[in-house]
Amino acid sequence: MNRISVEKSIAYIEANLQNPLSLEAVADAACLSKYHFSRAFKSATGDKVSDYIRRRRITQAAFDLIKSPDKIGQIAIDYQFDSQESFTRSFKGVYGLTPNEYRKNGVNILAHRRSSLSAERIEHLQQNVSLEPTIVTEPQRKLIGIHCQTSSVQNNIPVLWQVFMRRLHEIDNSLDNGRFGISGYKDFDPTQFSANAMVDKWATVEVSAIKEIPEDMVAYELSGGTYARFSHRGGKRNVQMTFEYIYSTWLPNSIYEIDNREHFEHYPKDYQGPENPESELFIFLPIKLKNQVE
User: Fold this and answer.
1) What is the per-residue pLDDT for 254?
2) At residue 54, does pLDDT exceed 60?
3) Does residue 216 sit within a domain?
4) Is residue 197, in this structure, part of any structural domain at all?
5) Please, where are the H alpha helices in 129-185?
6) From residue 47, how far is each of 38, 124, 125, 141, 284 by CA, in Å?
7) What's the rounded Cα separation, in Å, for the pair 206 and 225?
8) To the nearest 5 percent, what fractions of the chain are helix, strand and coil?
9) CATH number of the domain that residue 116 is part of
10) Are 30 and 40 in contact (CB under 8 A)?
11) Cβ count within 10 A of residue 5
12) Average pLDDT value over all residues in the chain
């Protein structure tokens, strides 16, 4: 019942991003009181209604900055900001760039954008994602595997894993604790994270010691430290929905920010493959408390 109400509210919000939106009006569209609607929305999406509206408006404004010739002040008015100054503050808080800098950059940045919550996304969040992560301290790990560079457009990751799995038997001293996928976002500028941005990826296993490294493979030492650990179930089909929830909903609403260490996924021993809807993997986000001095 609550999910249907939330879906109605999302449809109403999406139809009125460029019109005034009050909590009372959105709750009425969901046929719930403001109190019950706010609780239902948070439970279903992990987000506050006001935060969802604000980030959807900023995401759509970001598209308009690239595709529309309209002045920045007009775009701010279109998306119900009181002034260009308040729009600029909110926009920079999400994207790390002012609207003018974003327009000059000329690319749609993938990091921190907020997609519309479809019925499929709501169902995925309720059934297949841990909306609140476990905060863990991970040890340093010695890894051996295969490396490539890829972008969202190229998406060479499936091939990377296929090649690695065929050669996994060549690694003699691997530990029996699953596999690790490493993303090289260390020192990566999120303001440049477009669909064509190249990112380092590694498909690896943990080893007891780095001794002999098979030909065309590489050694990698995972830094360890404090991580937010999320579970994801459903194979590869909906994994981007999970990543988007982590970066665009959980992270900005948390007391943490990204630390300059590796992001990685752990595929446990019983992982059933990327096509199996019952497959579960764990996503590790390197974090530190906001405003923490390094």
Assistant:
1) 92
2) yes
3) yes
4) yes
5) 157-167
6) 9, 14, 11, 34, 20
7) 16
8) 40, 20, 35
9) 1.10.10.60
10) yes
11) 19
12) 90
- 224-242 burial code (b ≥16 CB/10 A, e <16): ebbbbebebbbbbebbebb
pLDDT tens string 19-34? 999 999 999 999 999 9
Do 31 and 106 lie in a common domain? Answer: yes
Beta-sheet strands, E only, within 116-198: 134-138, 141-150, 179-183
For the chain, what is the domain count? 2
Is residue 215 helix, strand or coil?
A: coil
More confident residue, 186 or 261: 261
Average pLDDT over residues 228-243: 88
Mean pLDDT of 221-242: 90
Q: Residue 188: which residues within 8 A CB-CB, separation 6 or more?
A: 199
Same structural domain, 161 and 273: yes
Question: Quick one: pLDDT at residue 269?
Answer: 93
**Residue 204: domain span:** 134-289
Token pair of 210 as six digits:
């780095």
Nearest-angstrom CA–CA distance, 256 and 204 = 28
Distances (CA, A) of 277 to 85, 159, 193: 46, 20, 29
Is the pLDDT at 189 greater than 80? The verdict is: no
